[in-house]
Amino acid sequence: MKKPFGLSVVIGVFICLIVIGASAPRRAGSNVSAAANDVDLLIAGGAVITMDRDRRVFENGFVAIRGERIVDVGGASEMKAKGYKAKQTIDARGKVVLPGLINAHSHIPMTLFRGIADDLDLQDWLTKYIFPAEAKNVTRDFVIAGARLGLVEMIRGGTTAYADMYYFEDAIAEETKKAGLRGVLGETVIDFPVPDNKTWEAALSYTENFVKRWKGDALVTPAIAPHAPYTVSTDHLNQVKAFAEKHDVPIIMHLAEAPTETKIIAERYNTRPTLYLEKIGFLSRRLLAAHVVHVNDQEIEILKEREVGVAHCPQSNMKLSSGAAPIPQMLKSGLRVGLGTDGAASNHDLSMWEEMDTAAKLHKLVTMTPTVVTAEQALEMATIGAARALHLENEIGSLETGKRADLIAVDLGAPHLTPMYNLRSHLVYAAKASDVTDTIVNGRALMRNRRLLTLNEEAVKAAARQYQKQVSESLRGGVR
Ligand SMILES: [Zn+2]
Questions:
Q1: What is d(CA 194, CA 187) in angstroms, rounded to the nearest whole number?
Q2: Each residue of 138-171: pLDDT tens digit?
Q3: Residue 180 in contact with residue 442, Cβ under 8 Å?
Q4: How many angstroms separate the alpha carbon of residue 192 from the centre of ligand 1?
Q5: 386 vs 50, 152, 165, 435, CA distance in Å?
Q6: Cα(290) to centroid(ligand 1), Å
Q7: Whose CB among 296, 343, 423, 469 lies 3.0–4.6 Å from 107's, allowing a Cys bridge?
Q8: Distance 41 CA to ligand 1 centre (A)
Q9: With contact defined as beta carbons under 8 Å apart, do 228 and 264 qualify?
């Protein structure tokens, strides 16, 4: 049958436009069309949990990365249609790809104190064991060895970013940068002589140099970290606030951790820890507060109003009998809540998988309500929730176009993950750090197929064992 003339012309023009359309970019410069679908890394074939606003999950999905950022996320058919050409491809079949986990509270060098004193309450543990052990052992080299050990553990367990507070934080920043991890790293300041600084003035001067060195770095965000409301005076907290404003940096601090703190603050200032900080104008979106166990509804509202970030550390709180933070109320209020492991001395490990599992179960037990802190909420607190607590939610915490390429792949083949009815509850209640196969930060692979690419694990462990001898020796007679 003969086609009507008009239609032939239309078809002819249409074909012509397609040809012109396809050839035009090549004439304008070959990299114009090349740039649209050329990517550095394509991760495809597995399930993808985005943790984006709509909490999209692709059963067979992909993530495309160019340079330091994610350029596309979607399903297999979409990827095929877009025809991505990748320099490198990761076959994620049998795996799930998700945003890297974010540890919202740690003291990374304390990996070297893993298990030196257990089954004690916070004040005994801190004043009789930890502070003396730190005074006798912590040097810049100690901090470097401990940081490396913690970095190995975190990369192996799929943690791509962490918030830290310790001494010699400048050395921790160097190690973090070298290992390729992302960190919000706070130099600890406190009202007594500590391993790196013997006076308050020296500590502030150290922190100023530290901040100036790292401000603007793609991986390291420098911060100032006053230890707690009961170990830093009001005058010094005011100085910390002024310092943070002057240099535009975050503040990291322990807050309302244990009943003893509530008692000390009541005796000293006749109020409660959170209300005290509110009274002196210390609460703001700069602050990332760790623990926040002993707060009431009024204080939760104040923290929400001030946009304070909260790092919930359930395992540390349980081990030191500090109490259970009112997380269900905090989540209901919309507070920025992330999960943290705290230091290895009060937790034994830096596994965010255990922390998610514990967070989801602890509050069910405490409230006798199985519907509070769901697996989904626990996963949120380890990813986008922690990013919100760190005020970095525009950069990390979910797999979305334009965000930093911080992501992990988890193998789903282990017996403890078989069979699989619900992917997200499996990740929270059953997956282990050892199931993580690939860890990518800022577009760079730090672990591929369980092989570490930026750290020598055997050398790191050997150095840690050397320090174990030294620590044991230093505590002989004094501790245990
Ligand atoms: Zn802590």
A1: 12
A2: 999 999 999 999 999 999 999 999 999 999 999 9
A3: yes
A4: 17
A5: 15, 21, 16, 21
A6: 7
A7: 343
A8: 36
A9: no
Does this model's pTM top 0.85?
yes
Tokens of 234: 């009001």
Cα-to-centroid distance, 406 and ligand 1 (Å): 24
Report yes or no: 226 and 290 within 8 Å, Cβ to Cβ.
Answer: no
Find all residues with CB under 8 Å of 38, minimum gap 6, and list them: 66, 84, 85, 86, 87
In the structure, what pLDDT confidence band is assigned to residue 34 with cuts at 50, 70 and 90?
low
pLDDT digit string (tens) for 434-472?
A: 999 999 999 999 999 999 999 999 999 999 999 999 998
CA of 463 to the centre of ligand 1 (A): 24
Output the CA 166–ligand 1 centroid distance in Å. Answer: 9
Q: How far is the CA of 61 from the centre of ligand 1 (A)?
A: 37
Per the CB < 8 A criterion, the answer to whether 58 and 74 are in contact is: yes
Q: Is the peptide bond before 419 cis (omega within 30 degrees of 0)?
A: yes
Q: Please report, as a single letter, which amino acid is at residue 168.
A: F
What token pair was written down for 13?
């023009």
Determine the distance separating the centroid of ligand 1 and the alpha carbon of 321, expressed in angstroms. 14
CA of 218 to the centre of ligand 1 (A): 25
Q: From residue 97, give the alpha-carbon distance in Å to each of 179, 264, 438, 464.
A: 21, 46, 9, 32
The label of the residue with tokens 């009024």 reads 298
